[in-house]
Amino acid sequence: xxxxxxxxxxxxxxxxxxxxxxxxxxxxxxxxxxxxxxxxxxxxxxxxxxxxxxxxxxxxxxxxxxxxxxxxxxxxxxxxxxxxxxxxxxxxxxxxxxxxxxxxxxxxxxxxxxxxxxxxxxxxxxxxxxxxxxxxxxxxxxxxxxxxxxxxxxxxxxxxxxxxxxxxxxxxxxxxxxxxxxxxxxxxxxxxxxxxxxxxxxxxxxxxxxxxxxxxxxxxxxxxxxxxxxxxxxxxxxxxxxxxxxxxxxxxxxxxxxxxxxxxxx
Length: 266
What we know:
Blueprint: H1 2-26, H2 29-57, E1 59-61, E2 67-69, H3 70-101, H4 104-109, H5 115-143, H6 149-174, H7 183-195, H8 208-214, H9 218-230, H10 237-264
Helix pairs in contact: 1-5, 2-3, 2-5, 3-5, 3-6, 3-9, 5-6, 5-10, 6-9, 6-10, 9-10
């Protein structure tokens, strides 16, 4: 009974952190524009590269030997990129700003909210933001005939997992940053993942050494998971990708909460 009461109180504190973010979003149009910006870029890539360049490429061969239109191949990868970009923007950049410059977390941690609950609340908000991206993006994909409806339904929770994984990673990274200039490394890494994670060409077409490196990166597993589910090609490898992303969620949550506690309460 005591444990249940404690869990409810903790859930309430996590909800308070989420509520603060919702209040910030309602306070002005700028935050809403930032939210929408994370969706527009992947959609533009989908239309320009997936549809435009796809008309020149034609079809792409999948790992099982079947061929699909290039736009169908690229669309799930753009969904993964959208989930990654939105989560990193909400955690890595905003988390760092709230922690070091706005000093919002000083005030939050002065309440009964603990570091773990604060980070979990921020990840929950990132998941809500990711759900917005994923829902709109999947609706566009279905409307364009790029994925079957059953694949879109299956890919939706997987897209949320991708957002949580990169959200946890972003929150953890933010606790190591010394200043805004350090985020150049984050942006560079994010762009490298965008280009070399099987987003535009199959990983098997990469040089052997690069292929091995790519298969160890998080966006590769996000792309593989979403592509397999969205196109309704279910294989055992998808479980490996799902487990990889789940470990990212738990690891990011643990590292971020511990380092935040040390940073705020040295």
